[in-house]
Amino acid sequence: MSVVQALLIALFVAAVESRALGYATLTMRFSPLMAGFVVGLVLGNMPLAMTTVATIQLIYMGVVAPGGAMPSEPCIASAMAVSTVIVGNLKPEAAVAIAVPVGLLGSYLYQLRFFMNTFAVTKMDACAVKADSKGLAMWIGVMPTIFSFVLFVPLMFVALYLGAPVVSGFMDTISNGPVLHVLGTVGGGLAALGIAITMHVIGNRKLLPFFFLAYFMQVFANMLNTQLTAVKGSFSVPMIFWAIIGVIIAVVYEQLTEKSAE
């Protein structure tokens, strides 16, 4: 990994953690897929990046952030894990073993960001007393963003540029041993836990049938794909097909619920 690549990824993570781009960055923070996409784009290995981050995404499917704090930071975990896998050309399963501890450490960094913002809150109060609108804009929007960049950019840069090769080398040495097998098994359990939490968060019995409908449609598509591949060659169901089916189901459901409400 070059200096420029590590710096670009660190800047992206800092922008997400600081919410520099507004609500869009808040959504990126909760979605490891976005961090994996950026890492794959910067490091030039998009297929491996997306395959790797898909495993991480399953873990964070059901994670919620009450009050803005999360038990683990998906963006930081994904950026570090995907970078390590690509640098070391590791198997995607190794990303889980990296993402979990890194995400926990990232949550402490985010709490430190809250502490740093208390200095800005003091200045906000002083500006509010003076009715200083420009000062309020500075201490509400600009300075907290600067604090976040000062905190996250150096730490992420060092972790990526110096830490990723070391971690990838270590993971490569244990790739054929029982340690990585155990971590991979636990990672699979975490993915199942993420799906279970998502089902629990849905909580509405009227919506659960759609979850199971999507699951069995995917199973049926895989069976169909296997049969057609054996007969005629390569075949796959395009993603646009699932998107169209989802839109149709959503529209029908919305129409039916409107009629029942009336």
From TrEMBL:
<keyword id="KW-1133">Transmembrane helix</keyword>
<protein>
    <submittedName>
        <fullName>PTS sugar transporter subunit IIC</fullName>
    </submittedName>
</protein>
<feature type="transmembrane region" description="Helical">
    <location>
        <begin position="182"/>
        <end position="202"/>
    </location>
</feature>
<feature type="transmembrane region" description="Helical">
    <location>
        <begin position="136"/>
        <end position="162"/>
    </location>
</feature>
<feature type="transmembrane region" description="Helical">
    <location>
        <begin position="96"/>
        <end position="115"/>
    </location>
</feature>
<keyword id="KW-0762">Sugar transport</keyword>
<feature type="transmembrane region" description="Helical">
    <location>
        <begin position="236"/>
        <end position="253"/>
    </location>
</feature>
<dbReference type="Pfam" id="PF03609">
    <property type="entry name" value="EII-Sor"/>
</dbReference>
<keyword id="KW-0472">Membrane</keyword>
<keyword id="KW-0598">Phosphotransferase system</keyword>
<dbReference type="GO" id="GO:0009401">
    <property type="term" value="P:phosphoenolpyruvate-dependent sugar phosphotransferase system"/>
</dbReference>
<feature type="transmembrane region" description="Helical">
    <location>
        <begin position="34"/>
        <end position="60"/>
    </location>
</feature>
<keyword id="KW-1003">Cell membrane</keyword>
<feature type="transmembrane region" description="Helical">
    <location>
        <begin position="207"/>
        <end position="224"/>
    </location>
</feature>
<dbReference type="GO" id="GO:0005886">
    <property type="term" value="C:plasma membrane"/>
</dbReference>
<keyword id="KW-0813">Transport</keyword>
<dbReference type="InterPro" id="IPR004700">
    <property type="entry name" value="PTS_IIC_man"/>
</dbReference>
<dbReference type="InterPro" id="IPR050303">
    <property type="entry name" value="GatZ_KbaZ_carbometab"/>
</dbReference>
<keyword id="KW-0812">Transmembrane</keyword>
